[in-house]
UniProtKB/TrEMBL annotation:
Keyword annotations from UniProtKB, A to Z: RNA-binding, Transcription, Transcription antitermination, Transcription regulation
HAMAP family assigned to the protein according to its UniProt record, in alphabetical order: NusB
SUPFAM superfamilies linked to this entry: NusB-like (SSF48013)
Function: Involved in transcription antitermination. Required for transcription of ribosomal RNA (rRNA) genes. Binds specifically to the boxA antiterminator sequence of the ribosomal RNA (rrn) operons.
Gene for this chain: nusB
NCBIfam families according to UniProt: nusB, PRK00202.1-1
Domain of life: Bacteria
The UniProt record lists the keyword Nucleotidyltransferase: no
Alphabetized PANTHER family for the sequence: ANTITERMINATION NUSB DOMAIN-CONTAINING PROTEIN, N UTILIZATION SUBSTANCE PROTEIN B-RELATED
Boundaries of every NusB/RsmB/TIM44 domain copy: 7-134
Keyword Transcription regulation (UniProt): yes
Similarity-based family: Belongs to the NusB family.
The protein's name: Transcription antitermination protein NusB
Amino acid sequence: MSLTRHEIREKAFQALFALNANPEADENQLFEQLLNPDENAEVELPAYLSTLVTGVREHQSELDALIQPYLSRTWSLDRLAKADLIILRIAFFELKFVDDVPAKVAVNEAIELTKAFSDDRSRKFVSGVLGKAVKDQTV
């Protein structure tokens, strides 16, 4: 069974969310839990899942610096809902570091992640931030 890029992004979000809550967690063990919840189905680790999770973690401070200018004066990264911040980090990572993902796809996928893991207010917020970033061509 192979995963679509959309499903891989969902797993990446889940992994990053879990790692945010427990930075000491074993990344490989986490991948195993996410990909084989019943332990009977053998699912191969998609390379793109590793690319997203490792890339977002390695470039987190750079991604946060790219996101910060798009927050209003009253908001800072630490005030954002963790889910929204992780979704923005994934999207900004794809926009900046993944050449085969068009900007429109990265933005749309981020909006889909907010539909799955956040709420309508967050969807509008994430959409606005990414829309401005793409328009400004900062990523």
